[in-house]
Amino acid sequence: MKNLSRRHLLTASFGACALPFLPGSAAARPLIALPDDIAQSDSATITAVRTPSPVVAMTFDDGPHPTHTPRLLGMLRERGLRATFYLIGERVAAYPQLARRIAEEGHEIGNHSWSHPFLDRHSDATVLREIDRTTDAIYQTTGRPPVTFRPPYGAFTHRQRSWLNVNRNLPTILWSVDPQDWRRPGATTVANRILQATQQGAIILSHDIHRGTIDAMPQTLDGLSARGLRFVTVSQIIGWPLWQSRQFRRVTQTG
Prior knowledge:
It contains 8 helices and 9 strands.
């Protein structure tokens, strides 16, 4: 499905400036009200963070997967580590118990669209349908909505990233380390690429839908830990409270 380089899709960097909001019907009021402090002072696009302590954020895209994700969760639980899972809405609907398990075991869940399209090719209205439907599925399943968004393939324009941040308080989270595990190069290669490229403050991209990625995780997780790096969620690395500690409320629609 991902027979292309994700790296060439990335044109963003930390600290992107917000663009003016473009009004239109696509900016309908969201069903979930996020806390006021979610995105007031943060940039619309984040690829890595300058952190004062040796932390990294391990992220897993495209799940949940019925067999690979449980294996991964077991590895993380054994090591007492937290990660962030960018889930596809269709898969949340298909595997709600697994999505709940991710949240209950202390991991963060982010929005990765409903059906994994190239969103830069779609209208604002279509983009919001993809994102809002996924947010609602995650909320209905876990009791809390995602507070960050990762576009499939990294394909999201500068205008879209700024526009989404204004309209949904969702910063776009990209990555600074890409082992290209979606090419399925083998577990050893995936682990080595992550270990060689990861520095303090990194956001690491990987996918829990590939067996080779899961096979690479013991060497990866233990290797990074041996270097003194600690694992935190995306919310934590950007200075927000733990996702599970946030308070949310559902908006009552009127009119």
